[in-house]
Amino acid sequence: MTTRNRTRRNGGDLVIETLQALGARTVFGIPGQHALGLFDALSRSELHYVSSRVENNAAFAADGYARATGEVGVLFLSTGPGALTSLSGLQEVYATAVPVVVVASQIPLSGLGARRKGMLHQLDDQKASAQNVTKTQFSVHHPSGIPSAIQDAWAAAITVPQGPVWVEVPQDVLLGEVMVPPVEDALAVPYDHPPRQELIDEAVRWLATSHRTAIVAGGGVRRSTGDARRQLLRVAELLDAPVVCTPGGNSAFPHDHRLSLGSWVEDRHVTDLLEDAEVLLVVGSSLGEVTSNYFTLEPRGRLIQVDAEPRVLESNFPTLGVRADAGQALAAIVAALSGTQPGAEDSVRADWHGRSAAEAVAETHRRVEARLDGQELSRERRFLADIRAAVPAEMQTYWDMTIAAYWGWNCWDAQSGEFHSAQGAGGLGYAFPAAIGGAVGLADPADLADAAEAGGPGVLAVAGDGSAMYSIAELASAQQHGANVTWLIVDDGGYGILRDYMEETFGQATATELYRPDFVALARSFGVPAEEVPVEEVGPALTRAFKRPGPAVVVVRTLLRMWAPSHLG
Which of 89, 110, 235, 361 is deepest in the core (most CB within 10 A)? Predict the structure, then answer.
């Protein structure tokens, strides 16, 4: 390190110092000409840098890190093409409400304002490009504004509904020498979103008199800043209410609980139960396309909808809308319900047409199983069961937009781990880079210093062959950083779900078939251990991969089928 680097600080140092003061540990991204001040400053910090090979994968990695750790993901982007390439990844971050702070470089100040100066990477308005996929956007035009902008961005990112926040800093501001003293502390406090008392009172009046209450638990329960999962369990038991989790809410409620309907939102028997509820309590979900079984859900009772995002309320159904953090709202409902009962441990006595809530749930599960039994789906069901048996109970899993993931949305039991998927925006290529981020976040910092000594709890990524090609370059990143991630690639020779959709709709599939590379050879070319196994041997192959430190790839060539959709009548 030169004397100049030791004694002179610039705007890049202010960015790094502020992030460290806010508690950041890891940064994802790719260097670029205008962002070099950021990356040079990293060399003078304790932040751990994880490189990606494509910017949208870096966004997925920051997303996966935040989901796995509960911390804020940090993403550094270069100007123009680098910034724009990240947007598809940031759409998933935004749609799923994951806290990420993005620091993007900009062209020098003299080129801003849509002046056509012909600067490299110049856009008319780069910040405008990010508006559709970030909560808030900040531009910094002088060094002294950097700490405040990043502090405000961090607060916005962790305020429910959480999400990505964009901060852009021009090249000359990052490189310019600063007089601002080193940032030693920074405070970012999320805005509080407690429920309004009159709404809770009205909701409890409905709930306390209902004998058929059902609950839909969405991603907002998992992203809550409060103790939402425990409060959800308490509400369900007080109301004796069946609970179904959305794909985003998968793992928000214990899968093996007597009141759990799992995540089978795409089954008509579950839809029937939700429709039959006198009161349907929806927490952290818009009751959107998938959760409503493709908009076939037609509730006959009254709806209460709790969500921190006001635009979600009544977006699909008339409801008693409660704008609030899920955990805070559920805690308020618990307190109010307990006060309406003779004893705090008493609950509403449910009556589902002469059956208890647990009996109604068990009967619904039997009907779902019977429907699946009536189709030739033994391979698919065994495949998911074999993966579940091989995956340790506490392991976090990441699922791409692939047929295996659609099964996972509905029937994966996360046990004591977490289930993460790209169901928010639905783009391809999510699982592997997100899993790299998760593996890095969960690893002991000491292990990250030497890729050869990779350690920490491993994670699993599941992708199809089509989605795998979106992120195949990240094998280099996984190997470079020793990410303890196993990548299961289900190779069916094409875009399997699109093939199914087209064959069902048009009688034939067009443009869905793909040339099949040798994924094992590709992985090994990066130094990553890999093997291809028959579908019946996926469990032992995963077990072998989990025992190895660092990345590993397991390939299964098989054609998985979807269950017959129940929303088509």
Answer: 89
